[in-house]
Amino acid sequence: MTDIEIPLGKRTAQYRFFEILPGIVSIGAIVALIVFSIFVPLAAAVLVLFIVIMMFVKAMSLAFRTIQGYSVFKKTSSIDWAKRLRDLENPKKALMRKFNKHDYDIEKHIMNLRYVSKAENEFPKPGDVLQAVFVFVYKENYDIVGPSLKAILKSNYDMKRIILIMAYEERGGEGAKETVYQVKKNFKGKFKDILTYMHPANLPDEVTGKGPNFTYAGREFTKYLEKEKISPENVIATTLDADNRVDPNYFSYLTYEWIVTPNRQRASFQPICLFTNNIWDVPAPMRVVATGNSFWNIISSMRPHLLRNFASHSQGMSALIGMDFFSKRTIVEDGHQYWRSYFYFDGDYTVVPLRVAIGQDAVLSDTYGKTLKSQFVQVRRWAYGASDIAYVAKNTFRKDRTAPFWKSFTRLWRLFDNHVTQAVIAPIMAVGAWVPLLINPTAERILLVQELPMAIGSIQQIAMIGIFVTMFTSFAMLPPRPRRYKKHRGILMAAQWVLMPITSLAYASSSAYYAQTRLLLGKYMEKFDTTEKFVKK
Prior knowledge:
alpha/beta, globular
């Protein structure tokens, strides 16, 4: 087994090289554009045109994936997963029943029943599976946590198979303790059990973040399982933030996929995280960012070979105990958990898509200015996932590696490409065509340079098709309009998309440059800056 920990303190020269590399390339791309514009403006124009065409092709592909992904998401969400799960209790008997051939994905269900019925002893029964639901609380009040737990109660799943674990922070003070007290009081007897674990502040070798909280609670829960003589082999751990609201199908669907997945301990199960809980309440720039992230999660669910852990997900308790839960040394514990698991299992690890939603709050604070700032804080934390590049590179290039080299290398390249692209593309798309003309007045004599702004403008106009696809699909995703809003607010929901170029620069690109520059300078982000939760009533 490979050492799966992030190094503490001084890094090796190789590790520092890969921490520096994304920042050097992202900054270097802009510098190269300026240098080419001064000395070889034709090369600068060709470079910009190539990038814009490449992004145009990608945008058209993403528009198609958005429509496809949303269609599959809606169909999957309409399945009666509780009924399909019951079929797994006695698959041979279920196969004697006549199935409706028009039910979505029914052929796959029949195939799974046949698969399980051939070796029933090798598969757990639905009644053997327990759900351990970890809900993390820092300073969130009961107004945030209460609706999330009520959403769990609406599940078409046996609540006596769910153990609720409230993992709260000592740093949260009396507010966190009060929230947990209210949960125990108001939800007593609703689940198989309610456990509460307070993560102590200022433990050694820990960043300030969710990973240490989960690891502490996970270790304490392991003691509970031992005491109750419950085998962790058929316990599924699900991590939820305080504002997460599960689809009623989630736990039935998760248990179904858990049972039919052969190497279930070497897999995690990833739902589609949608930032729609409070989407009607947040300002327009936040709606654009939130909707864009929601669509990206839908698109990712259609590409399982590229799917990574994000926000809330589920994983086998036995596997988590073996790898000592989450990393305590990174603020991007969700994405890093993919790489931690991948190398722990020597590359034999997969992420199974669950195409139902877990609703999350879009960023909202009590003032407009604080909301804008909080959005940047959230996005820069995600952008700090660039810190995983060095971690993956270290485990890919080490001589005693146990994961396959080319499998790991292709994943490393995609990770590197994604973070550099996030930084570079928005500024080049916005002003790249004008840079040669503004920096080098003689460049206007070159036809391609002279016509470049108009050519790129035409390409961008065609690419607006993708914006319209996103806009219309986003309307279909909206939860019911709260009564406090007039119908004309829907018009603002459409008009918000003119802000996409601005939000791309202000949030996606700038946060990527911020995170990569911190890595380049060795000024590591070691504190999880929580996104403030505000409920508008």
